[in-house]
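Fold Annotation — chain and its backbone
Next Lines — sequence and tokenised fold

***
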Amino acid sequence: MTPMSDAPFREPGDGGNPAGLSPWRAALRTLGRDRSAIAGTVVLAVLGALAVAAKHVVPYECNAQPNIVALKNIAPSLAHPFGTDEFSRDVLSRVICGSQVSLSVAFLSVMVAATLGTIYGAVAGYVGGMVDSAMMRLIDALLAIPRVLLLIAIATLWNGLGIVGLVLLLGLTGWFGVSRLVRTLVISAREDEFVTAARALGASDMRILGQHILPQVISPVLVSATLAIGNVVVVEAGLTYLGMGVRPPRASWGSVFSDGMISFPSAWWTSVFAGLALVVTVLAVNLVADGLREALNTRQLPAR
């Protein structure tokens, strides 16, 4: 055991927090002092709240077409802050309703990708040998295929994806990089002293992997998954814009943007506000991910 010192221990980058503070609490405390990360968190919280309560906060029904002739392509006004689109639908309502689809698809698909990538990479890194080599060669082959082309090919063959299909498609094609990251971390962690001690005490491989090694890779995977959310939001919007994602008349930011391009020169507001929603979301996600990286990379989180 390491001898105790009378002087309070201070972790690198913790801003003077005493050692008695939980590493996760210290990370949150560090994150709380990052103004950019806080701003990003607030923006994401507002967008998430709007998505959850969309039906109660939209000024008009998302797909309502009150007067397709008289109310078509009306510029932003008090009655319609974001204007109306080609089909007389309120753009603000469409953007808010679109946040439900865009954010939920991004979050759920990243959860699928992070889970698959963590399991695959952990098994490859812990087992090692020929199994590791074979598993990684498969990942190399999959990474050699551009993801966008793979998505377009599958979406074209699988006509009418639906929301569940879109989540699975994005999730099942987004875990390759995560698996490589986890494998590298597991290879490093499996040689640590606490793993050797657990193995000497007769702990099973599943117990060692689940309770002693995997908790060490949580922070990098969390940062990677946070960054992936912003990427998936853009990818989903792109697929929907190409007609391979969310089907009309259901609103997503990609479909709202696509609808606005029909009459963009004379009614720019539809595409602009949908595009701003995408840009703000991706920027907020990146700010949060950068804050998480700074807060979590300065300390090694303990196994539980």
